[in-house]
């Protein structure tokens, strides 16, 4: 489990495969294992760099507040430290926000940009729902309940066919510590807004969005693609906020192949 120290943070990261570098940035409440189903296909063509954002997975950081721009600085520093001058960048959900800031603040590090299930400013309904879910854990609900609610928001109706909610784990007293770890990147997300800045991105960009996403409705992806000059929008029919790897890896690899880093 390699870790890299950057300022007050020890970033947990993995590198797989060979080829042009491909940086994958996970979303809120996710870690580098978010990409486990996509990795076998991606690593056949690219050197894939995965890492845990501050507040996620095995990355360790101080209790200080941070912004989405801070997370993009972490990503840039990671690339620098492992001697990657430029990479293709894929960000999912909050990771797409980090990817936007990376493209704006460190454009020399980014060859192509793929923004999945993401937005320029978080949907108000989703912000409200996440705040309620965080509050419920602070009042005593378990993290298992919290994650089940996340599943309900991020998956589509067919995923719940013949399923009923059930709880198997006891509520532990460490759940408050864990939820506070989640609340910090959520607070950073609340302050993210590129509605007046996304048009400054001057990189080959592909926006990927599920047609049935209720966490971030597809209109947000459409608006994002419209703001970035030359951006293409790829709709994943029937998908929610979670995008099946089998549905997006092919189009993303094709897009990246059209824009080699050496060009």
Pick out the low-confidence regions. Answer: 171-177
Q: Mind summarizing the main beta sheet?
A: 8 strands, mixed
Specify the structural class.
alpha/beta
N to C succession of SSEs: EEEHEHEHEHHHEHEH
The Cα radius of gyration reads 18 Å
Which range does the strand content fall in? 15-25%
Mean pLDDT over the residues:
92
The rounded distance between the terminal residues' Cα atoms is: 34 Å
Given the C-alpha coordinates, what overall shape results?
globular
Q: Helix fraction?
A: 25-40%
What labels describe this entry?
263 residues; alpha/beta; eight-stranded mixed β-sheet; 8 helices; globular
Q: How would you describe this protein?
A:
- There is one protein chain.
- By secondary structure, the chain is of the alpha/beta class.
- Helix content is 37%, strand content 18%.
- It contains 8 helices and 8 strands.
- The chain has an 8-stranded mixed β-sheet with strand order 1-2-4-3-5-6-7-8, sandwiched between helices.
- Helix 3 links the parallel strand 5 and strand 6.
- The longest helix has 16 residues.
- The two termini are 34 Å apart.
Layout: helices, strands, pairs:
Layout: E1 3-6, E2 9-16, E3 20-25, H1 39-42, E4 46-51, H2 68-81, E5 87-92, H3 94-105, E6 110-116, H4 124-138, H5 143-154, H6 175-190, E7 205-210, H7 218-227, E8 232-236, H8 245-257
Task: Write a concise synopsis of the structure shown.
The protein has 263 residues and is an alpha/beta fold. It has helices at 39-42, 68-81, 94-105, 124-138, 143-154, 175-190, 218-227, 245-257, and strands at 3-6, 9-16, 20-25, 46-51, 87-92, 110-116, 205-210, 232-236. Helix 4 (124-138) runs antiparallel to helix 5.
């Amino acid at each position: 489990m390699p870790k890299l120290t950057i300022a007050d943070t020890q970033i947990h990261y993995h590198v797989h495969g060979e080829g042009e570098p491909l940086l994958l940035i996970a979303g809120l409440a996710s870690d580098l294992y978010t990409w486990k189903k996509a990795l076998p296909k991606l690593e056949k063509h690219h050197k894939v760099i995965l890492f845990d954002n501050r507040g996620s997975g095995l990355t360790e950081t101080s209790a200080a507040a941070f912004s989405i721009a801070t997370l993009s600085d972490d990503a840039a520093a990671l690339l620098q430290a492992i001697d990657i001058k430029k990479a293709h960048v894929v960000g999912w959900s909050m990771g797409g926000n980090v990817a936007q800031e990376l493209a704006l603040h460190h454009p020399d590090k980014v060859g192509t940009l793929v923004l999945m299930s993401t937005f320029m400013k978080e949907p108000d309904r989703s912000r409200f729902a996440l705040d309620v879910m965080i509050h419920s854990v602070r009042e005593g609900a378990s993290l298992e309940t919290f994650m089940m609610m996340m599943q309900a928001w991020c998956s589509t109706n067919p995923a719940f066919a013949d399923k009923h909610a059930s709880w198997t784990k006891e509520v532990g007293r460490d759940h408050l510590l864990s939820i506070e770890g989640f609340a910090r990147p959520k607070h950073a997300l609340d302050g993210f807004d590129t509605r007046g800045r996304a048009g400054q991105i001057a990189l080959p960009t592909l926006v990927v969005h599920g047609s049935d996403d209720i966490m971030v409705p597809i209109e947000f992806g459409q608006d994002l693609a419209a703001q970035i000059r030359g951006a293409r929008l790829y709709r994943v029919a029937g998908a929610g906020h979670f995008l099946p790897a089998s549905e997006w890896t092919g189009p993303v690899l094709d897009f990246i192949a059209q824009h080699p880093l050496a060009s």
